[in-house]
Every structure is written in structure tokens, then in C-alpha cells.
Amino acid sequence: MDFDAVIIGSGFGGSVAASQLAARKKKVLILERGTWWISPEKLGKPPPLAPGRQRMPDWLAANKQPVQYWPRPDNRDGLLDVFASIRTDLHPDGLYRFSNFDDATTLTASAVGGGSMIYSNVTIQPDPAVLQEIGLNLGGADYDAARQWMTGFRGPLNKVVTKIPLPGRDVSALTDDDYLYLDRARVLRDAAAAVAPKLGIALPWAPLDLAVIEYDPDRGAASDAAKNHTFCERQGRCLLGCLPAARLTLNKSLFAHLLQDPTSGVALWPRTEARQIRKTGDGYQVVFHDHRDGGGEQTVTAPQVFLAAGTLGTTELLLRSQDAGGLDLPDTIGQHFSANGDFGAFVVNTAQRVSSTRGPINTSEVRAVIDGTHLTVEDCAIPATFASIAYTALSVLDSLVKRRFFHTRLRLAWLSHALPDLRDFLPHLPDTYDPNDARTEAEYVNNIFFFNVMGQDDASGTFRLDGDDLRLDWQQPIINHPTFAKADQLCRHFAEAMGGDYVPLWDALPTRRLMITHPLGGCTIGPDRTRGAVDEYGRVFDPSGHPTDTHEGLFVVDGSAIPGALAVNPTLTITAQALKAVGHALGP
């Protein structure tokens, strides 16, 4: 055997598996189809390093790792940078992966660090009633272990709901300093307080726990800000990469704790795309395309394989392995996909300024239970890169067309050598009497609020392979599920309280569809192979024997194992379930 274990994917499930296996002195290989993505900014005064340690850029260069850099311009010019970062057949090294299905589009990541590279840093726990409803057996001790892993392997969680850091202050209940709240956090809080009595339900507002470094001198020598010489600068662009490098993404943790330590026993191969798993006499053979060397087919073997390629990646890999005949799998592979009730909406022309470009992507939450359905409403940033296009789309204006027309006329004048009338080319000389003249990117969306909502759907989606393409189907259009109507109605009430005009995200898209950022399921936990693809410890069911028999050494440790909607950001739950699965695999 080449390794004690192969891990496919380097997101939360993969990082949990790598950290726990390394602690038991196992020889581990992580296969990651993406590349490294890091911040391009240089620190003015780099923090000192411990003896024998390297900085990540130096280590990446020394080890000839493929490195790409986050999109940077915080204006409309940055859109080209974002488009250049999208993963397509023609650009297989892209970071953002949009998968378009008939009724929905999913957004996932392909990079060292997996989903942590584009998620909103939110680390929260679902309601126990939600876990009970979907049959996920995780308790308080499991979530405590997940939080301990998060803080130990990554760093302390912080609440970032104020315009400036307030060390030592309880930011969940400011009074005289209420004006220090980030505008959109305060507006969401006030809207919830106004709507609650009208609906006759509780709508508690609270800051979110975020995996972001905050300025924290009160922690003394343990201060992450002091150790890293960085903290959250409220740039509103977490999904596009944190230029101050204050996000606690998993590529940093893998590097800091495992990869730069030659004694850890952990190796990571980027640009290696797993294509099939075959069962052998004493373990498993993983077939992968090695894009480091022209994309040729290679194999690696190990007695244990941990699948952590994400909801879409793991499900697709197992379906392909089943079709190829190298692995006998239950018919439940591909079933019970959940959109996690993901729903988005805007409020345009809010009565108060919401400053959507400032702060982390998400800062605060409001939880609701409407007719038995759990919903979580979060404020959401609009990065400055998207500000003008968001304003244009939502205002039904096309300033870009006007700008192209202007540039065309300028080029024609240049080519004809004609002296243009400057009034034609300078129609917007600064007008200091007009407050709307020459607005900044932030001003475009100062009065546009963006809702990020999660709820409970019925996990009724089914994946299948069509040739080599992954398909996702529902028997009934998922957009008609009652949870989305409830989310829509709740957001309408919030919009009214905010004094603005309501626009659901699906109305702003070319076709009415869901945009799913928290895909779950496909290889779900169940009591046996007739009702799930894996058991409660992530062990894949073996259909050749008893209904509860499993393939020894084959585990699913990512979001594809979650058997239904969580109605909150799923990161902490995925981590808790992965710790439970890997802990059982390693034994006492």
C-alpha cells in the first residue's frame, strides 16, 4: 500500500480527516482537484516566525505548488478577474464552480481548502428539532468537539457586527454606542423587532460566530491579530478573497499544522481529480487524472478512503464508480439531495442606509419558526466589485451601455483625427450641487439590502449520471416547495419594515430558479441501505450482504452525508459529523 489512507478533497471533511489521522501517525495523501489560492498583498511588517517555520508563499514556491491569486479590483473592473476565476471545461483550474441544472444552480469551490475558500465564515449550530426531524444523531458533545476543532485547528471565532473592533465589549447589546453597528446589521435587527409583533412570533436577532481574525489585544500573547499582523477590515468581499488575509481558511490551517511539517505524514497533491474508486482485496484503488503532468491517468492504493469532495463531487465519484463496476454500491447513492432551503432577496431604496459593501459577507442572523418550518435570515454583503452591476440590474438602468457608447465615440474621434466637442465627451463634469453625481461603488448599494435565507426543504432531489455529466432532478419543481414561499413572505415583511421595494433573487435572474450555496445530501446517512447510502459513522453500505453491512474502510465525511436541510449554514454540522466518523474509524 502507498498510504494508510487517501482523502479525496481538502474542505472541512477532508481537513478533519487529515488532522485526526495525522495525530495517529498515519501516512496520508490528500487528492485535491484545485490549486492553491492566496492573497497577493504583502505585509508591511511580517510577523516573526518560529524556528524551522516558513511563510506560506515561500513554502509554495519552494515546493513548486500551483498558485493563483484572488480577484482584486474592488470596482467593476474586478468583474473580469472574477470571470477569470470561474472553473469551466476550458479553464479547469478555476476556483468558482457553477453547476447549472434544470431547476437550480449550485456554487461550489475547487481549491486547496475546498468550500472554506468561498464560504461566508459562519459557524453556527442548527436547532435540535431540525436535527431530529432529518434523523441526524448529533448532540451537544459533538458540536462542542467541532467548535474545539475549529478554534484549535483554525483559530478563535469572533463576532463582527460593528464598524470598528470593540475589544472586550459585548457587541450583541450595544446601547449608547448603537451607531457603531454596521448599518445592515442594525437595520436587520430593527426590522426583526418591528415585524415580530405583527406576525406574533419570536424573531431574535444575534451576531454570528465567524471564522475571522478580529483585532483583539485583550487576548494578549494569544491574540491572533497580533500573531498574524492582520484583522478584519470590513471590506465586504469574503467570497472574493480576503485581501488582508484575515479569514481562517483551511488552506492556511493545512499548511500551518500539517503540510510544512515533514514529520506529519500528510501529503497533498493539487490538480489531481479523482475519477473512480475500485475495491481491491485489501483496500481500495483510487483512479485519478494527474493534471500536474498533462492529465494522465494515475492510481494510488490504501486500506482506507475518506470521501470529502463535497456534495456534488463525492456523489458524482461514487455514481461513476458504481457504473464502472469497480465498487458495489446501494441504489440510494444520489438520492435525498437538499437545497438547504437556500433563498435570496433584495430590498431596494431602503429608508435607512445599509452600506452593503461594508463588513464581512454575513454579520448577524434572525431565526424564525413559521408554521413549524425553521428559517434563518442573515444580512449579506454586496462586494464593491458587483455594486454597480447590482445597482444597474435592480434599478433597470444600463450605465454600462452608456459607457460603451461613450468609449466608441471617443475611438471614432481618435481614428478620424477630428477634434471632438469636449461637451460630447465630458458629459459628467463634476457637479458639486448634485449629491448623486459620480457616486462611489459603495454608494451604489448604500440603500440595497441583500437577504441570505436558509430553511427546510424535503431533500427530494436525485442525482444521476448522463454519460459523464452529473444531472439533478426533482419530481416536482423545487422552487414551489412551501419553505420558499414562507421565506419569501417573511422577507417581504422585513422589506416593508425597511421602507423599501422588495425584489426576490429569482426575479432578478434570467430564469426563475434557485441559487444554492449550501448543497447537502446525495450520499446520506440512513439506518440501512434502503433508506440511506452511509450509516451514522459515514461508512458506505455494501449491498452484497445484510442491509446494514458496510464496505470496510470506505467513509463519506462531507456535506453529501447530511440527510436533509439544516436551515442554517452547514459548516459546523459537517465538521461535527466528520469528527464523529473519523473518530469511529480510528477507534479508541
> If you compute it from the alpha carbons, what radius of gyration comes out, rounded to the nearest whole angstrom?
25 Å
Structural class: alpha/beta
- Profile the largest sheet: 6 strands, mixed
Identify the CATH homologous superfamily of the largest domain. Answer: FAD/NAD(P)-binding domain
CATH architecture of the largest domain: 3-Layer(bba) Sandwich
Strand order in the sheet with the most strands: 8-2-1-12-24-23
Low-confidence stretches are 397-404, 419-427
CATH level 1 class label of the largest domain: Alpha Beta
Mean pLDDT: 91
Number of strands: 24
- Total domain units: 2
SS element count, helices: 16
Please characterize this protein's 3D structure:
This protein has a 6-stranded mixed beta sheet, covered by helices on one side. Strands 7-15-16-17-14-20 form a 6-stranded antiparallel beta sheet, sandwiched between helices. Strands 5-6-21 form a 3-stranded mixed beta sheet, with no helix packed on it. It has 2 domains: 5-42 and 51-382 and 445-586, FAD/NAD(P)-binding domain; 391-442. The chain starts with a strand and ends with a helix. The chain is 29% helix and 21% strand. The model is unreliable at 397-404 and 419-427 (pLDDT under 50). The protein is an alpha/beta fold and 588 residues long. The relative contact order is 0.18.
